[in-house]
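User: what does the whole thing look like in 3D?
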Amino acid sequence: MPLFEHRMQFAQSTKEGKNIPIPPAQSLHVLGPVLQVVVSPTEEHIRALNQRGELPPQPVTGLALIDTGATATAVDEEVCRKLGLKPTGSMKTAHAGGPEERACYPIAISFPNTPFPAISTPTAMSVNLQFGKTPYILLFGRDLLVRIKFVYNGPAGRFEMAY
Amino acid sequence: MPIQELEKEILYFEQHREDLLKQHQGKFVLIKGDQCFGAYDTAENAYQEGARKFPGEAILIRQVLQEDLVNEMPAFCTGLLYASF
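Assistant: Here's the predicted 3D structure for the full assembly of 248 residues, as structure tokens:
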């Protein structure tokens, strides 16, 4: 089972352009368990594009947050538009203003600089994840975490994934 | 709106939910247009078949339940995801 251990190591920039490292425990507290992922169309979709003589779109690289509070994985809606994905369904999500129905899309997720193979889900829910200070492209929900052993080490500012 | 691409399929599912429950409760059905193309044990299996039959097209994959599941994402839905100090 490949194991990936990630020690949070972020820095804050000063007005003078200096980078001040933030301790790992504080990095993990402020940013949460985040890692770089690449979101792309599934193999099935790429095959369909090849059959039509179309080039597959450029995959999108960005930050994913491991969100143990989310029932299902969510992907940024702009990423779905850039990849030209076709919906596979819809899902209701609970909002402060009431339930909202959102489209779902099939995506493949790969993990650069880790020993993990790519995984895919046929029904990632699309939402706008780009409105905060830290723009995510993916929230890793429990539908995918069901395949992963995840350890959160707060004092060490580190998390581990085995899959 | 992307879900408009699946308006026909979602309508078909709602109209036939009771019948689908009798035969395929808990399974994932594959629907295209106004036709059901089978029930599968997992969403992945339904998707693979749907991608094979309808390459590059919108398809509906839905689990047959009495009531649809709601995706709970409390950090996102309450705005806590972007809370700062």
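In plain terms: Chain B touches chain A through 38 residues (CB under 8 Å). The longest helix of chain B spans residues 7-24.
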